[in-house]
Amino acid sequence: MSPLQTSIGVLCPEFIVALGAMALMMLGVFMGERSQRLISFLAVALFVVAGIVVLLSGPGRAVAFNGAFIADRFASFVKLLILGGAAFVLIMGQGFIVRQKMDRFELPVLVTFSVLGMMLMASAGDFITLYLSLELQSLALYVLAAFDRDNLRSTEAGLKYFVLGALSSGMMLYGISLIYGFTGTTSFAKVAVIVQASGVSIGLVFGLVFLISGLAFKVAAVPFHMWTPDVYEGAPTPITAFFAASPKVAAMALFVRTLAEAFPAALDQWRQIIIFIAILSMALGAVAAIGQNNIKRLMAYSSIANMGYILIGLAAGTPEGVQGVLIYLAIYLVTNIGIFACILAMRRGDHMVENIGDLSGLAQTRPGYAFVFAMLMFSLAGIPPLAGFFAKFYVFLAAVKAGLYPLAVIGVVASVVGAYYYLRIVKVIYFDEPAPAFESKMGFSLASIITVAGIFTVFFLVAAGPLVTSAASAAAALFP
Questions:
Q1: Which helix (H) or strand (E) holds 71?
Q2: Is 185 in contact with 191 (CB distance < 8 Å)?
Q3: If we measure between CA atoms, which residue out of 176, 249, 258, 260 comes closest to residue 218?
């Protein structure tokens, strides 16, 4: 078998998504504007097929195109999360998209192309692959943020995201050029060998700073978080749910792979930067959300804080730390999709509401819905024995094992402070005077996703074993 044939075989899931995306685009062109529902469900089917191929790809490590693409257990774990998150968002957003007259076929096509970029990000083994895959994802996301083109807030969100995203891409590209200049290669594996042999120069440290700055923007870590609240609030709610799910998983996976595979010998240098970013993210996320009344803006600051907690696992620089990152990402994905499904159900007639005050007394009008909403909030606050507690437990444990005791303590304190605004929502739901009731019919798909997210969150401890084991196996792939 020729190297090209081998490479094509390794990229089989990506080729399926790429060819499927182009086919869906042509189908939409020929069928017209109202083909959105069909194309959305075909996109979901495409993600399911790609997920099955990823599962069948085997546990070994394979490389393609001279190491530019890496298929291993880490990439497979992340790709399954990305595909699952995108599929759930497309399913739960159908009702909203139709009601808001946004049912244009370009939406699922753009989601599919962004998912292709994310899958390539998870397998990037070269800085050129890193940059191209990141931009493929980002260009689709810029358009999605402004997809509700008749809404001023949505177009403003898309423009802000685009301008700041272009700035971050330039910073990251400058960092990559410095790294290339001081090592003479763009391959992660070769950079690692050169850094191990010749040490970490000042120029390389500058390159690392710019590279990490660009990646920190993609995960919305402080001080590169400025776009997050405005984009979360302005973008259509299903698109916001997508931003909070799969892209965060892909960007964090790229963050982990880049530092773990290209710069293991520079751990002491990049660990300091990661610790600094993690502390700032946890602190700002814990404090800034307290005064928010719009629940989508609150979730934006919540995501900033959660990225800070995840970075604690990366700062550990150990297999246990990466395992904690992967467990956290899986739990974060399901919890956030569940919460945004609950937000999509905040509807009176054809009018969506987003203020926290609109949840007043929800337990009296919709007790089942209120219970799941409260459990998801408790989970984000890290209340045991819910799933969110174990997400934080694994990253804090990894930090302690790596000797990063002050970082773990700061994380616990930030988590306690941040619990206030999650518990405030629970208080509004259960103890405030009832507001006018929401629309009783939320739709089967929305109700199903809320139920699944609630079951996962409440009963995580019962079935945590397979996830923990899979995350450990995936993390070990980065530390041969």
A1: strand 69-71
A2: yes
A3: 249
Paired tokens of 402: 């790596």
Does residue 198 register a pLDDT over 90? no
Q: How many Å apart are CA 135 and CA 118, to the nearest integer?
A: 10
Q: Which residues pair with 124 in a beta bridge?
A: 69
The rounded distance, in Å, linking the Cα atoms of 220 and 144 is 17
What is the C-alpha separation between 317 and 288, in angstroms, rounded?
29
Q: In whole angstroms, give the CA distance from residue 335 to residue 241.
A: 11
- Per DSSP, what are the bridge partners of residue 70? 63
Question: Does 223 sit behind a cis peptide bond, omega within 30 degrees of 0 on the bond before it?
Answer: yes
- Residue 360 near residue 434, CB atoms below 8 Å: yes
Do the Cβ atoms of 142 and 231 come closer than 8 Å? no
In the predicted model, what is the mean pLDDT of residues 419-423? Answer: 88
Mean predicted confidence (pLDDT) in 123-128: 91
**308 in Cβ contact with 280 (< 8 Å):** yes
Kindly report the three-state secondary structure assignment for every residue of 284-350. HHHHHHHHCCEHHHHHHHHHHHHHHHHHHHHHHCCHHHHHHHHHHHHHHHHHHHHHHHHHHCCEECC
- Provide the token pair at 362: 């929800």
Cβ-count burial 280-303 (b if 16+ within 10 Å, e if not): bbbbbbbbbbeebeebbbbbbbbb
**Residue 412, Cβ neighbours under 10 Å: how many?**
14
pTM above 0.85, yes or no: yes
Nearest-CA neighbor of 334 among 461, 244, 240?
244
Helix (H, G, I), strand (E, B) or coil at 363: helix
270: phi then psi, degrees, rounded to nearest 5: -75, -20
- 165-179, 205-219, 375-389, 430-444: least confidently modelled range: 430-444
pLDDT score of 7: 67
List phi, psi (to 5°) of 434.
Answer: -60, 135
Q: Taking the CB of residue 194, how many other CB atoms lie within 10 A of it?
A: 19
**Residues in contact with 187: Cβ distance below 8 Å, sequence separation at least 6, in sequence order:** 66, 67, 68, 125, 126, 127
Q: Which of 261, 295, 110, 296 is nearest to 189 (CA)?
A: 261
Within its chain, how far is the Cα of 11 from the centroid?
22
Q: What is the structure's pLDDT at 1?
A: 46
Stated length of the chain: 480
Rounded distance between C-alpha atoms, residue 251 and residue 428, angstroms: 34
Cβ atoms of 109 and 39 within 8 Å: the answer is: yes
For strands 351-352 and 62-64, give the pairing: unpaired
